[in-house]
Amino acid sequence: MLIDIRANATPEDSRTHVRFAFQLDEPAFAVRIHFEYSPKRLDDDGRARELLKHSFEKYVLPEQRALAKERLDRYLPLNNLITLSVDDPDGYRGACHRHDPVQGLTISEHDASPGLMKGKLAAGEWTITLSLHAIVTDSCAYRLQVWVEDGERKGEQP
Amino acid sequence: MRWTACELHAHTLHSDGKMTLTELASAAAKLGFECVALTDHNTMSGLADKEAAERQAGIAILPGMEWTTFHGHMVTVGLAEYVDWRQANTGNIHDGVSAVHARGGVAGLAHPFRIGSPACTGCYWEYEVEDWNDFDYIEAWSGTFAPIKTDNARAFALWTDKLNEGYRLAATSGRDWHDAAETDEPISVTYLRLEDESRPIGEEAVEALRRGRVSVTIGPLVTLEAETPAAFYRIGDVIPADKRTVTASIGIDFSVRQGHWALADPACRIRLSSNQGVLEERAVQATEDTQKIRMAVQTEGLSWMRAELWGIVRGVSALIAFTNAIYFD
User: Fold this and answer.
1) What is the sign, positive or negative, of the torsion defined by CA atoms of B207, B71, B323, B247?
2) What's the mean pLDDT in B230-251?
3) Which ipTM was obtained for this model?
4) A34 and A95 within one domain
5) pTM here?
6) Are B13 and A114 within 8 A, CB to CB?
């Protein structure tokens, strides 16, 4: 296992990137990534409404705020959003900007999960970047695992 | 020279869209588009299927990416190379725009007034802009039935304000298209004027965005030209300061994308707008062909003018179409 991390994010971590580097000592056949975070949803309805009302102050014109509050439900539920991007020793290998809180990803010479770019997996320093777009729950636990799969074995999550 | 119907903001399953690139291109072709920009969030991996999708759908695909950052979304089109979005902070967006330009692309503000985090993360534009000329365009119309949305009215007003301040930048539409589900709401089209048809459509389309050769509509194609005895100017052009009067010629082509839109109420108004307000307004009746309306314009004090088509859409008074500006030096 090249990376196996469990951590927690809080609302203060919103709008930050967290980077995790790993080393490939030799070119690999495939790199596999398992990423998940929980909870996805802010279930505290009162808190969600409070957050939205606060954002209306910032983003909605004063004369339209009453209407925005009336239609507040269309923005519910509020969700945590963390997305993942990958860099190899030579540069960007793509991002998986989607809302799934559990993502199993593969990147290899001939194939890659949507959002990532297939191609040779060079030796050197690789980086996984987690972009914490919004954390709306008091705490959001995430787990990131990265491992190499060799050509013979079909990689099962260890 | 010809106008080409483009969709400039679309996603696939390489980010959070529901379609493959071939499905997206085919859906765009079915709606009468000749060109669609792939602007997935923070990745260009979908472009691996570009040639195959173009062949299958029979339309052009523009490479692009939507910078989906914490402080704003920025659509970038026309560059085949990735530029890193993760360095962006509220004070350095111009560095990102410069990098996009250096790779041959154009950059525009995406849905700048859509509600931001946490409802839609980073959707509201919060970047400090030092020079609006650095941007190629503002996505003034986002989503379907764009002209009636208050966020879009704010974006359109922002564009007008910047024109009034003397900046020269384009305004576009983008559906921010994520899924294949059909809609009965009016769909916006950004028409781009291709000057040199011998060049690849993709290159000319990006050049049109760069030069403001743009007209936006939910129905007919509205164009604007200006004539003096010696010269002829089109949308995006600059009329020299010594021209005291010009003849503006507004074209309204009701025959475009037939079957894909309809105006239930044919009574419309065509307006020539400028930094000095409305220069002239006339009633027009929607027909099935092209109408030309000519107006004499005194240029003193003018820095820009554009044509706007207004009418009743689904029972609401709405801007149906607007051209980009012709500028005055």
Assistant:
1) negative
2) 94
3) 0.95
4) yes
5) 0.96
6) yes
